[in-house]
Amino acid sequence: MSGPSPVPDERRLRGTLIAVSIMFLAVQIDFFALNLALPDMARDLGVSVPQLQWVLSAYMISVASAFIAMGRVGDILGRKRILLVSTAIFGIASLAGGLAPNEVALIVARAVQGVGAAGMVTVGIATVTNAFPAKRVAGAIGIAYTAGGVGSALGPLIGGLLTTFVTWRLVLLINVPMTILLMVLMYLSIDESRDETVPKRIDYRGIAALAGGLVLATFGVDSAQNFGWLSANTLIPIAIGVALIAAFFVIERRVRFPLVDLRLLHNRPFNLVTLAGAAAQLPWVGTIFLSAIYLQDVRGLSAAVGGAVFLPMSVGAAIAGYYSGRLGRFLPQQIMAGALVVGGGGVIGLGLITPWIPYMIALLVTGLGAGLGFAYASVGTQTVVRPERAGEASGAVFTVVVSFSAIVVAVLSTVLALGTGGDVADSPDLEGIISALMVTLGGLSIVAGIVTLFAVRITREEIDELQAS
Questions:
Q1: Domain 10-191+257-468 is classified in which CATH homologous superfamily?
Q2: Which residues contact 47 (CB under 8 A, 6 or more apart)?
Q3: From the centroid of its chain, how far is CA 75?
């Protein structure tokens, strides 16, 4: 059985944590930098921002579809091996995206890049869980998320500067030397680990059903902006996607060595934190997507200045990531409820406030709340599963969270397109629509926080029992 060493080598632990932290830094810089480059990217490629939102959606769908598969493959075939392969995929796809001649090639490259990012994040978390003693796992994961928060802070600034003064393509191309450096560091610093309790056998049917279901369901939601919600072009992909996701659960129940142990569905702390982490994407993804458009198309800022404005939100997320592993004295429902209410309050402020200083304070508050919700979704769930199945658990959490994020982006893009008649940048109603959407997202987040606090009561004894099992 794979697990932490009774007498850990502090030098190796430090090297592992540095490597995984840099990995989180790289992935977050990439996502946030490219997000801010969307308006310039759309102009350069001759398409609208809603059309190009598939640069985000394809990436998130790909990530969500690959999380469980990559996490479990890492558990079975070796986490270090899969980390190296995933990082290579991320780098090669970044190169292809940076050189893409049109939006189709760019979207395909981003989808492939998402597979690499899924392996880097989910297997990275599992690597930390298995390397560190149980009492230090939450703190170590929190440090990795702090690095991710720093990446969130640097990403918009880097993306804005490169887009304004050079080209948006460099936002992707900069990943190439970063991934080469990261692969060398991982090779030298990380010890191999795997789940020794199972054979090297992969559930390919489960992978196909889950990936196909997520892709089709999200594609159907996104199609609503072109065909309407009651169109066959919208409903048929959604129906087939839901059916494939249901088939995934049937397959996992019957297969001998499943991708996901369905006993996780009976783990109440795991379920609570995962669902609340998904809800935290309402203020998080909503702010990232809507504010990038608002700052440039409503307030008239350049990508570089817009990136600087995003810094408070990213700083808040970095602070939240650091403390996410140091909140052990609180119960999961208390932590996640607080995160949802704070994040929701922040995004409501963003929808109602226009003066710059209060607006940036609202960004900080949103980052603190939504960042904590995202980080603790991983920290909290890793402490209530067996270490040898850490990749599986991490993959399940990220699949739910990122799938919901992709759906949120698709819905927001559809509403924007319908509300502005497809001409987002020049619509006189754009500011009002964005304001209404942000207030709605914030209200939903606050309601989710109240439900999280009172709907399910998790006790300290239940958590201790799960940690000991």
A1: MFS general substrate transporter like domains (1.20.1250.20)
A2: 103
A3: 20
The count of C-alpha atoms lying within 13 angstroms of the C-alpha of 372, restricted to the half-sphere facing its C-beta, is 26
Q: Which residues contact 124 (CB under 8 A, 6 or more apart)?
A: 20, 23, 24, 83, 144
Could you write out the DSSP letters of every residue in 60-126? HHHHHHHHHHHHHHHHHH-HHHHHHHHHHHHHHHHHHHHT-SSHHHHHHHHHHHHHHHHHHHHHHHH
Q: Decide: 389 and 270 in contact? Cβ < 8 Å.
A: no
From the centroid of its chain, how far is CA 170? 22
- In sequence order, what DSSP letters do the residues of 333-348 get, joined into one string? HHHHHHHHHHHHHHHH
Q: How many other CB atoms are there within 10 angstroms of residue 79's CB atom?
A: 32
- Tens-place pLDDT, residues 291-329: 878 888 888 887 778 778 878 888 888 888 778 777 777
DSSP annotation string for 165-217: HT-THHHHHTHHHHHHHHHHHHHHHPPP---TTS-S---HHHHHHHHHHHHHH
Domain boundaries of the chain, sorted by first residue = 10-191+257-468, 204-256
Tell me the whole-structure pTM to 2 decimals: 0.75
368-404 pLDDT per residue, tens: 998 898 888 877 676 666 666 666 677 777 778 877 8
